[in-house]
Amino acid sequence: MQSFENYDEHWGRRTCDIEFYVSEARKCGQQVLELTCGTGRITIPLAEGGLSAVGVDNSLLRLRTAIKKSRLLGNSPRFIFEDCLTLEIDQKFDAILLPYNGFSIFFQTKEKIEQLLGRVRAHLAEGGHFIFDVTNALVFNWYNPVPDVGRASPRISRINWYNVNGEQGPTYPERINNFFPKEIEEILLNNDFEVVERWGDFNGKPFELSDKFQIYKCRARANTPHP
Question: Which domain holds residue 208?
């Protein structure tokens, strides 16, 4: 894994989704929660946009950086140090966000996925929405595939980082899960979520199988008890 010092340099460089998440969150309501918020890449713009934003992460170092970055805001977000799998906040949210393929972090066992989505359902306000993006395993060569027993696997990728001069940096041994569209649909259905909208990019393009991104807006199915 890359050192914390490189976190913002690498993970903080993506900006194509910020306006999308702020806009979609605003459509849902005022109370917004971002899971795995890191150093506030999305949470801080949410607050800057006038929303009541809460960011959750399991790294104190990342959260300290997020707090430092947000201090000058008139409407500072709230940051919470907690594991998303055991999340307990005395608050319901109109929108819960999981950007930047954050779903991949929890895709290790069926139990972890169920825990995560259970915590999402438990913290959604009535009529609230869960919005997240993942990469498409049908277009897995967006990253460099990791050889898996002598063959490339569309499920797991590695990342090559490049510096601002275009020179290749180190390849971090991080495994990024890519997801097949049907797989995500089944995961959501099995955990009592229904898809409201699905896009293929952050400009609102309807999803097609050839898209690199899968971006979902979903809600808990009616009459589904919270765990």
Answer: 4-136+179-220
